[in-house]
Amino acid sequence: MGIREKLNGKPWITVVTLLVGVTLAIWYLISSLSTGGGVGRQFYTDDDGKTWFADAAGKAVPYERGGKTVVMAEVFEVKGRQFVAYMRRHTAASLEAMKKQTATVKGSAINYRMEYKKPGDTKWRDIEGDVKAMAEYLNLSSPEGDLVQVEP
Fold first, then answer.
1. Is 133 exposed, middle or buried (0-12, 13-18, 19+ CB in 10 A)?
2. String of b and e for 64-102 (b: at least 16 CB within 10 Å)?
3. pLDDT tens digits along 43-88
4. How far is CA 32 from the centre of its chain?
């Protein structure tokens, strides 16, 4: 007897399976929405990469929090040591364009032009799209070993 015949003989198994599936789907959606609108998580810093925290991804940065300017932080690990390799923020033109957006286009902030800066540098660099400049500036190698990007 195959699975189809067993299910036809006991329709309650199909109903229970469907209910469990729907319950799991609803639980997943609710948990996704409570952790940032279902768009994932991102690291941020408000002290030039000395410390970082996780929050919902897709935020327009920089933004103010507790009197400090917050930007995105790209966290890496080498031999058990975690650190911010570089930071990102939207350009002034991107921020202005985001302000003009309607509220129905949530999460699209990640598609706007970014500037980059390493901890300790004083100047933000608008190098997005210039593959050579990005590779040179964001050279992510370490004499200590292989770098692994850390996810929030």
1. middle
2. eeeeeebbbbbbbebeeeebbbbbbbbeeebbeeeeeee
3. 999 999 999 999 998 888 999 999 999 999 999 999 999 999 999 9
4. 13
User: Does the N-terminal peptide bond of residue 62 adopt cis geometry, omega within 30 degrees of 0?
Assistant: yes
CA distance linking residue 101 with residue 146, whole number of Å: 40
Q: Got the DSSP string for the chain?
A: --HHHHHHH-HHHHHHHHHHHHHHHHHHHHHHHHTTTTS-EEEEESSTTSS-EEEETT--SSEEETTEEEEEEEEEEETTEEEEEEEEEE-HHHHHHHHHS-TTSTTGGGGS-EEEE-TT-S--B--TT-HHHHHHHT----TTS--EEPP-
